[in-house]
Amino acid sequence: MQYLHAALTETIMLYPAVPVDPKICFSDDTLPDGFSVKKGDMVCYLPYAMGRTKFIWGDDAEEYKPERWLDGDGFFRQENPFKFTAFQAGQRICLGKEFDYRQMKIFSAVLLHYFVFKLSDDKKAINYRTMINLHINGGLHVRVFRRQGN
Known about the structure:
Elements: H1 2-14, E1 21-24, E2 29-30, E3 36-37, E4 42-45, H2 47-50, H3 54-57, H4 97-114, E5 115-119, E6 128-130, E7 134-136, E8 142-146
Antiparallel strand pairs: 1-4, 2-3, 5-8, 6-7
Cofactor: heme
GO molecular function, one term: monooxygenase activity
Keywords: Heme, Iron, Metal-binding, Oxidoreductase
């Protein structure tokens, strides 16, 4: 399921569940670029914007392209968690990351095996609302059809 893993990772990169991630400084510190922060300062990073940044991902950063995660032999290639920040990195990396991927793969495989999903109105623009979690304004209305032969 190498391609499925890449497709899920690409989706999470472009549409992270947590699009804005604030942190509070517990002590004075200096960021890697030399910027000083003081105890109590809030520092935010933006996984939603980072997943679309050409400087990080290349000129095709805004394209849905699962192949960017595969090596020449078709195997999934892990990126540095400080580059792909959807699950955080370092000491704060998500303990449930592997479980999350396992669940996504199981549900994707089962649902896509039995059903076809189509947008109810493929002409309607999809607009996102950045809150604690990434929301679609007005929801995402889809029609579900049983696959033939299942």
